[in-house]
Design a protein that fits this description.
It is a single chain. The protein has 3 helices and 5 strands. It has 2 domains: 6-67, no CATH class; 74-109, no CATH class. A 5-stranded antiparallel beta sheet has the order 3-2-1-4-5, with no helix packed on it. By secondary structure, the chain is α+β, with helices and mostly antiparallel strands. 23% of the residues lie in helices and 28% in strands.
Length: 110
């Protein structure tokens, strides 16, 4: 059984939610459908960073795709931060930068 994984994000230009594949390019966040519509530019698929969410491929009783929510403790985030803050992959460094912006992040980063 193949599970469908998609993302969603809010596009300010068109004032609507977009569903599809997530693309991060040079600091810009995009959610693009499987097929692009004619006459559309990349600006039509750019989304707000804070609105991005991953859909798990499951639907509720109304047929709406469910979002994935990750819950971790500060103890786990502290371990991740100290192990990955100098990692060679930029995704880990970006995640560690996000950790430093959390409330009481000084507990994690000391």
């Amino acid at each position: 059984m193949k599970r469908l994984i998609k993302f969603r994000g809010y596009n300010k230009k068109n004032e609507k939610w977009l569903y599809g594949s997530y693309i991060l390019n040079r600091g810009h966040h995009f959610v693009a459908p499987d097929e692009f519509a004619e006459g559309r530019t990349w600006e039509d698929y750019e989304v707000e960073e804070d609105s991005i969410g991953q859909l798990v491929g499951l639907t509720d009783t109304e047929g709406t795709m469910q979002r994935r929510i990750i819950m971790v403790s500060y103890q786990t985030l502290r371990r991740i931060y100290h192990q990955r803050r100098t990692h060679r992959l930029p995704e880990w460094r970006l995640f560690c930068e996000w950790i430093t912006k959390l409330p009481f992040s000084w507990v994690i980063t000391i």
